[in-house]
Design brief:
The protein is of the alpha/beta class. It is 22% helix and 32% strand. The protein is built from four helices and ten strands, in the order E-E-H-E-H-E-E-H-E-H-E-E-E-E. Strands 5-4-3-6-1-7-10-9 form an eight-stranded mixed sheet, with helices on both faces. Strands 2-8 form a two-stranded antiparallel sheet. Keywords: NADP, One-carbon metabolism, Oxidoreductase.
């Protein structure tokens, strides 16, 4: 199954200047728990913002640059190539982890979207695409716990593609 995993605000902002805008440890833990042991696909800019391959995952990076040679990543030149390589490595779920352009390309290919919705508004320059309501339905929603470490109101939501 191809799954998109993303955190965004009420206007679908996902970042600014190639960085996350908010710090939400509960979302980072959620992301780690879901993606551990699986293949993750990201664009070059997302990889550069993370700064390293994420441990215990197959890290596939989509880039037109052929000289990107970093330990722990598998370089792919298209999203389709990355998905094929991920499928050849494992029959497990494949997670698309960003950024904006990769999300836009992956949306028609995805089976599920795991979205952390921050119930707030941030100033950003990167956005998650709008989800057409006739193509996606919420199959799970859970309100997150706000505390001193997680200062924003948020919800974990799972969308399933409508067949």
């Amino acid at each position: 199954m191809i799954k998109i995993i993303v955190a965004c605000d009420e206007k679908n902002v996902i970042g600014k200047n190639n960085q996350l805008i908010w710090h939400l440890p509960a979302d980072l833990k959620h992301f780690k728990n879901l993606t551990m042991g699986h293949s993750i696909i990201m664009g070059r800019k997302t990889f550069e913002s993370i700064g390293k391959a994420l441990p215990n995952r197959n890290n596939l990076v989509v880039s037109r640059q052929s000289h990107l040679n970093v330990d722990g990543i598998i370089l792919c030149h298209s999203l389709e190539e990355a998905i094929l390589k991920a499928k050849s490595l494992s029959r497990d779920d494949i997670f698309i982890i960003g950024g904006a352009e990769i999300y836009r390309q992956a949306l028609p290919l995805a089976d599920q979207i795991i979205l952390t919705r921050l119930h707030d508004y941030f100033d950003g320059d990167a956005f998650f695409p709008e989800l057409p309501s006739e193509q996606w339905e919420v199959i799970h929603a859970e309100r997150g716990i706000t505390d001193e470490k997680n200062p924003y109101q948020y919800s974990f939501m799972t969308y399933q593609k409508i067949s």
